[in-house]
Amino acid sequence: MARAKLFAGAAIGLCYFLVSFILLGHRNTASSVIAAREDILKRSPCINCIIIAGGSNSIYGIRTGIVEDRLGLDTRAQGVVNVALWNEGFSFSSYFQWLSHLQLKPAVLIYSSAGFYSLNESALSDGPRQQLDGESLLSIFSSTRLITKLIGKDVLLRFDDHGDLANYRCSAQFDPIEFKPFDRRAADRFIKHIRALGGLYRGSLVYLRIPPAYISRNQRSDWIAYFGALRKVFEEYKLADQLLNFPPQIIVDKNKFCDSPLHVRREFGEVLSFELAHDIKAHVLHTIVP
Amino acid sequence: MLSAQTAIPHSTVVVADRDAWTDGRGEPGAKDAARTNVKRVQSLYGALGASGVAPRALLFAAGTAVTSYVYGWQSMVCTCAATGLSLCLYRSAKNRPIARQCLAYLLFMLTPFLTSINAINTLTGLDPSGAHRYWFGITFATTGLAVFVYKGKLSPTAALLDIVQPLRLYSGPLALPGLSGHWVNASVQRILYYGGWLNLGLYFFFGLAPAFIPFFHLKHSLNCIDILAFATAYELYVYFNFAGISFIAFAILRIFGGAAILNFNTPFVARNVIEYWQRWHISLSIICKTLFFGPLRARVGIGGAVAVVFLASAMWHGATLNFLLWGCFHAAGWMLTYFLIRRHAWGRTAAFVILPVVVIIGRLIFSELDHNLLLRKLYAVITMDVSGPLMLRELTFSKPELFLIGLALAVIVGEVTRARSFRRYRIYRTGWRSIVILILTALLGAAGIGGVYGTR
């Protein structure tokens, strides 16, 4: 009896690993974004293009088709490529490694990161190392339940030919972005990351975009002070000129957002794309378009 | 050094002694072990194996390798350095009780100090990280070291193989002196017995706990109903998460011959706050009792001693205003219960009534680091303010989540009703039900957001 139970338990464990890790593999929102990005870059390699790097704020909030149209770029020679990943690849080092493998040769890099909002002491602590799709390096369970994968109910993101998000599934189940006081050490660390990106694409112009975020009305003044402190640090590092949009939009209207305080709805994303094109024109276009 | 022949009968005696600390049944296979082929044990592990050093060293090496892989090679640098330093200081203070006790309290207070200088984060339970890379597990390590130093039982073997055992640093049960693990041969019964605990831990940690994550969206609401729903759901989340990870560590440590106690023992069986704390995070309770309650009770009375215990426990979680309030609140709840039970005939009923209030409001205080927001929430609860938008209505759950919440509530109902089969979770560990639990965990388990205690 005891042995039978032991073997039954071992058999269930083995079946779980076979089905979960070998047959189905990691399949989640983040992996669907990675696959879509790699697919687009295979079809149209980025040479002298404008790349938009960063996190999921750019997946929801930037329509590359609109940006290309507004900039009037000849897309056969020079397009806009969105290489933003979910939660920015879950760690900067994984994201950086992934970007360096892609061998992009951009003329302009626009880095649009939620990291601008988390320059606080929490950014100094380290969680477990994660894979690019957010799964733990050594976890026996994935972020998506096996039953959800088996019955095909896992909702993955889909992208159009431009690499823009095609299926926005919004819900009201999210809160304003959490405010924590600005921390200088976290800002120094973040700037190191920005410089690393600049080093990866030597000869390219690097610009920084602070994505809009949904904030609590009560914390508006806190955020204004936070961005004031951020600006000072960026000025010290002589990076203030690289900020495409300052002061950033801090929004108290939840209706503009889809399912998180950094994921905007499609309509607002289109407005933001127009604004981005305008900012690019104002800051950089004369340097890359004859 | 123990030989295999002497160690195995000795281990049987130790098992009987530590029944009070563990699950009360003694180790299965202990009797078998006495009958087993001693030569086989000797040939496999030699004298070291018989005393449990080799398998524990193996577990330590494996745990360190896994931690380095997942958190980076730097992960345990400061923790190991602090352990080495503690050992050196302990050696020099070993024969001077006052110096030894001072060292023990300093070690215990290292956590609040590191929190106040932001080397490690204050605990919220909502953040999977918690320590900077170099300080991985420092809280659990120094607390274990403190009690060993206080009792004068620190040795290099205990420090490395028990206290800084990486499994414990992932929120496992804290190391306690006076327990000794012994390798008594890995029989099928032994693996099955602790496999049952491992299975239960996986079910709680990966199965039930993540189902409560959608409730976290209520954290920002100021509606009284939302606040109470969040605090209740968060209490259950912390229970399943922390108990689950503790059972996993407990089972693995015991399979490998390590000494460990059950960290949780059906806390919702409790009929008052005092009983609740006897069943929740038992290893920390024992340490606080050893370091603070025991020495202070005669000097400052039971009220003062309890207050110091809860304040020390609060500072262990984080040197912040909300934890200070949390400690005072639970100390007051404990004292009120003590007073009611001792002084009044109806005291037990009254203590039972205040239990959910103390537990749920205590959890609300625990969860909110922003003291302005916390005060607003407490005011909303006291005035029963339901004027704010009700976010509970907006929550959406998937079918597996609803099913898992139902299963979690079944655990709580089983505990509250004191069903016989729920004693020490027997219903989930024995018989073919454990296989059903395993299947449920495999199908419905999810990674979640990590342990509530993170990597502190």
Describe, in short, the structure shown.
By secondary structure, chain A is α/β, with parallel strands linked by helices. Helices cover 42% and strands 10% of the residues of chain A. Chain B has a domain at 188-444.
Describe the structure.
The complex is a heterodimer of chains A (about 290) and B (about 450). Chain A has helices at about 1-25, 30-45, 55-60, 65-70, 90-100, 145-150, 185-200, 220-235, 265-285, 285-290, and strands spanning about 50-55, 80, 110, 205-210, 215, 250, 255-260, 265. Chain A has about 290 residues and is α/β, with parallel strands linked by helices. Chain A has one domain: SGNH hydrolase (Rossmann fold, 3-Layer(aba) Sandwich), CATH 3.40.50.1110. In chain A, strands 2-1-3-4 form a four-stranded parallel sheet, with helices on both faces. In chain A, strands 5-6 form a two-stranded parallel ribbon. A two-stranded antiparallel sheet of chain A has the order 7-8. The mean pLDDT of chain A is about 85. Chain B has helices at about 5-15, 30-35, 40-50, 55-70, 75-95, 95-115, 140-150, 155-165, 165-170, 190-210, 225-255, 275-280, 280-315, 320-345, 345-365, 370-380, 400-415, 425-430, 435-445. In chain B, helix 4 packs across helix 8 and helix 13 (about 280-315) crosses helix 14 (about 320-345). Mean pLDDT of chain B is about 85; it is low at about 1-25 and about 35-50. Chains A and B meet through helix 1 and helix 6 of A and helix 4, helix 10 and helix 19 of B.
